[in-house]
Amino acid sequence: MAEKRQSIHGQWSSRWAFIMAATGSAVGLGNIWRFPYITGEYGGGAFVLMYLACVLLVGIPIMMAEVMLGRRGRQSPINTMSSLSKEEGLNPAWRYLGWMGVVAGFLILSFYSVVAGWTLEYIFHASSGSFLTATDGEIGETFDSLLRDPGQLLAMHTLFMALTVVVVAMGVRSGLERAVKFLMPALFILLLIMVGYAMSTDGFQEGLYYLFYPDWSKLSAEGFLAALGQAFFSLSLGMGAIMVYGSYLPDDASIGHTTVSIALADTVVAIMAGLAIFPLVFAYGLEAGSGPGLIFVTLPIAFGQMPYGQVFGTGFFVLLLFAAWTSSISLLEPAVAWLVENRGIARPKAAAIAGLIAWTLGIGSVLSFNLWQDYRLFDKTYFDIMDYVTSNILLPLGGLLIAVFTAWLMSRKAIVAELGLGEGLVFQVWLFVVRFVAPVGVVVIFLHAIGII
């Protein structure tokens, strides 16, 4: 590279700031309920071991590649891929890899904001003490009535999107970094408090057993595919967020050490969430395998029965809000960065424009739970289609193309210079994994997601 690029958006003040931001992007609603649930379903400790192996062999190598591309390009994912393909003398069509990530993240934000709005609604319910006096049936009806009310869903969707836009509008250091420096430590503290309470309940031993006892009889092909998919999606790969955050990473920060730290923190949060949730579920004789209902129906019943349930219930849903918020700002940032770079729009205006478009797309998801629930394509609602296309097609395809571009098409000199690993054993292992192992893993995720295997 003839000249070292600099991001016009600024950069993180430190490697630690990037770790918190990228961990915030990775830690989302799925970590808090999905990881613990599927861990128990697929063999507890046996699944955890499978998951860690998949993180090591697929998640971390592709994340390193994506961060490397971002720092090398120092621009939005679209312009990064355009610049790097030109630098390497490759087909300019590789810029569409950048477009794919930005579009995927943008579409995810549109429906993620709707789901995050449920969390906002439940903060109000929990803090008002309504769970304390409600019967189990009334708590279940609370969630159903929320989904049936497009006006309330739209209000919460609007409020959450506004929170996201405000942070992104303030810029890298004043907005993104300042937000995650508060939100991520607060998230960990809230989780620790919840785990501390869970340890005092009668269900803690059973919760530990559910999460960590290795039931090897459940170590199935289906469990492996679940672990592989969770490892890929939980690290926010292929959606432009990690690439654009990488573009703000200081030159002297180690990509390898930083990526491992992010993956470790993401996994720790998921496990802590399980330690906080399942002891409560078992202590109050509730159903552990209830999917999304675990958060919005089962746990509120527990909060209604436990001592200080109003406090712990409110804290839990604030924790969920923080997890959703740090993810959503990373999903909006790539589109905003592109508008600033290519259209010369001031960042606050760019954030407002991008946020408004994502909000508008989210209206379809709001309506798919009520007024549009009978309008389906291939037996899927609007919400289901957005989720399916992004999670099952765009993200795996983006991850695969990132691996191909990095390990097969970029010059060895450029890779060595950016990764900073030298050309020793660690680099050779990483290159082998990104060339051969990780792509196979992503292809397996893709084929399973579309129902071929």
What is the average of the pLDDT values? 91
Major sheet size, sense and barrel closure = none
Shape: globular
Supply the CATH class: Mainly Alpha
Number of domains: 1
Write down the secondary-structure element order.
HHHHHHHHHHHHHHHHHHH
Termini separation (Å)?
A: 42 Å
Radius of gyration: 21 Å
Low-pLDDT segments, ≥5 res: none
CATH-derived topology: Hydantoin permease
- Quote the beta fraction: under 5%
What's the gist of this structure?
This protein has 453 residues and is mostly helical. The protein has helices spanning 15-26, 29-41, 45-73, 77-87, 95-128, 130-133, 136-148, 150-169, 172-199, 204-212, 221-234, 241-246, 255-283, 293-305, 309-343, 347-368, 382-409, 412-419, 425-449.
Offer a few descriptive terms.
453 residues; mainly alpha; Hydantoin permease
How are the SSEs placed, and which strands pair?
Blueprint lengths: L14 H12 L2 H13 L3 H29 L3 H11 L7 H34 L1 H4 L2 H13 L1 H20 L2 H28 L4 H9 L8 H14 L6 H6 L8 H29 L9 H13 L3 H35 L3 H22 L13 H28 L2 H8 L5 H25 L4
Describe the protein in words.
It is a single chain. With 453 residues, the chain is mainly α. It has one domain: Hydantoin permease, CATH 1.10.4160. 78% of the residues lie in helices and 0% in strands. It has 19 helices and no strands. It is globular and about 65 Å long. The mean pLDDT is 91.
